[in-house]
Amino acid sequence: MGFYQFKKTQRIPSTLDEVWDFISSPGNLKRITPEHMGFDITSGDLPGKMYPGMIIAYKVSPVAGIKMTWVTEITHVREKEYFVDEQRIGPYKMWHHEHRIEAVEGGVLMTDLVSYKPPLGFLGSIANALFIRRQLEEIFDFRVQALEKIFGAWNR
User: Fold this and answer.
1) Using CA atoms, how far apart are residues 59 and 57, in angstroms rounded to an integer?
2) What pLDDT, on the 0 to 100 scale, is given for residue 35?
3) For the chain, which terminal residue's Cβ has fewer other Cβ atoms within 10 angstroms, N or C?
4) Which residues does 97 contact at the CB level (< 8 Å), separation at least 6?
5) Measured between alpha carbons, how far is 115 from 16 in angstroms, rounded to an integer?
6) How many angstroms separate the CA atoms of 60 and 123, rounded?
7) Could you tell me which CATH class the domain 4-151 is placed in?
8) Domain ranges of the chain
9) Strand ranges in 20-132 using DSSP code E only, listed in sequence order
């Protein structure tokens, strides 16, 4: 039974305040998720900012267009530094996603660290090797592109 971590970093040419305002707003999640994932927030009347204990329910189609419910809890928030979402109901046996931002010269460094455990033991490990890991990479590559459209590309 495998346990995996996935890390993605991105430099964003913006201010800490602007990036935090964007990423800490649940309503912006759909804007940075690939359309083919069929991502829809089903929680009603979400506030504009995340807070510890917040429960967010979604419908998502991670495999073969099959809709499933995914429920996460925002377990930790440190204003303008990081927040953590953990799966309560969904496709993974365990999911812990840390979103961290820090000011750097010229903008903000954003780091996503996802720790996860697929379901189904040995079969989940095979699924991770065959498609889960690749799908996570594609989702976070999409997020890089989406955030570049919103905030601009980092001048390298």
Assistant:
1) 7
2) 87
3) C
4) 72, 84, 85, 86, 112, 113, 114, 115
5) 25
6) 22
7) alpha beta
8) 4-151
9) 40-41, 55-63, 66-78, 82-89, 94-104, 107-117
